[in-house]
Amino acid sequence: MTLSSPWRTDFPALAALDAQGQTYLDNAATAQKPRAVLKALSAYYLNGAANVHRAQHLPADRATRAFEATRLGVARAFGAASPAQIVFTRGATEAFNLLAYGLERHVGAGDEIVVSALEHHANLLPWQQLAKRRGAQLVVLPLDDRGDIDLAAAAQRIGPRTRVLAVSQLSNVLGRWQPVAELAALARRQGAFSVVDGAQGAVHGRHDLAALGCDFYAFSSHKLFGPEGVGVLYGRETALAALAPWQFGGEMVREADYQDALFHDAPMGFEAGTPPVAGVIGLGAALDYLNGLDALALADHEAALHAALLTGLAGRDGIRLLGEPHTALACFRVDGVHHADLAHLLGEQGIAIRAGSHCAMPLYRRLGLDGAIRVSLAPYTDGDDLQRFFQALDRALELLR
Ligand SMILES: Cc1ncc(COP(=O)(O)O)c(C=O)c1O
């Protein structure tokens, strides 16, 4: 297979993985890091680490400027009007937990929180638990035949009792873009907050969150070629102002006395304690790297790879794709073969894929399945990766059938 990637050599881990006989096709779980990110991380540590915002010395000033430059970079990359709309968290999961606590006072007994049937646990369980804490009802939007959130059903179920709508932009199982702008508009009409899980979607294409119209949007740095332990929560200014702080400590407080305290507004008011300084700086380097890529060439490469993956799967007997993924991944099952057995044999041949229910157990239950195999792609994936995957798949299926 041709399909070479001009970006592969920017990611030193790929040569290391090649040397270990590993073909990395688990990019929806986490992505490898470009050299630019590794350099930014080591420069920060080698030149002198320092805490941000609090000190007057040179290393602190340098760290603070780099940290805040990332906030500005994220705001620009995602179409936020102001960097004050960008809160750094420890990941997408933490962002949803922050929201579920921050919005708690807006949800009462008998109110409704609306999620969809395809949510990742990260954007389901915080809302499920909030509903339990407040005596509210969790409403689950059904999917249509293609596995997309059913807009007609959503229009009926998002109503005057809805306080929060939380939906995924791109399913980590079905690989399909969801109509989040339309859903956010339905929520807005009812005066409900809209939350979009961008953990998978943020990685593919460019996004204009102001145009998308949601109140909140969250993603993790590590899937976007940045370091682990960092996430981003974007909020519309009025939506952020409606949030109560959820973690208390240094950085987020304006004034404190023994019995009471006053807190900062967003973003600082939601960044209690020492933030992941190196990680945020690394995320800034990842965004700079991504912004420097030829977006059209990248989209073409991703589309060609994805088409090759789908064609290869479709050409093999007994393989059942889950839905019709739009981009970047494919989940599948094989007739008469358990996904765990297949994953084991693929792993033995150095193929790094993900098997199981992909942190979306309720979705799998609804589909009547106990799991599947997921292959997921990145800009550095190339035709050789796919060829090795298909060879290993054929060998594994020969053994298992
Ligand atoms: C759709 C979706 N939402 C949320 C998450 C949670 O991301 P993290 O574990 O980085 O917080 C993931 C991670 O796999 C995901 O795929």
UniProtKB/TrEMBL annotation:
Reaction equation(s) it catalyzes: (sulfur carrier)-H + L-cysteine = (sulfur carrier)-SH + L-alanine
Keywords: Pyridoxal phosphate, Transferase
Alphabetized InterPro entries for the sequence: Aminotrans_V_dom, Aminotrans_V_PyrdxlP_BS, Cys_dSase_SufS, PyrdxlP-dep_Trfase, PyrdxlP-dep_Trfase_major, PyrdxlP-dep_Trfase_small
Protein EC: 2.8.1.7
Biological process terms in GO annotation: cysteine metabolic process
Membrane-spanning ranges: none
GO molecular function, one term: pyridoxal phosphate binding
Cofactor(s) for this UniProt protein: pyridoxal 5'-phosphate
Gene3D superfamilies named among the record's database cross-references: Aspartate Aminotransferase, domain 1, Type I PLP-dependent aspartate aminotransferase-like (Major domain)
Enzyme class: transferase
Segments forming domain Aminotransferase class V: 23-389
Protein family: Belongs to the class-V pyridoxal-phosphate-dependent aminotransferase family. Csd subfamily.
Protein name: cysteine desulfurase
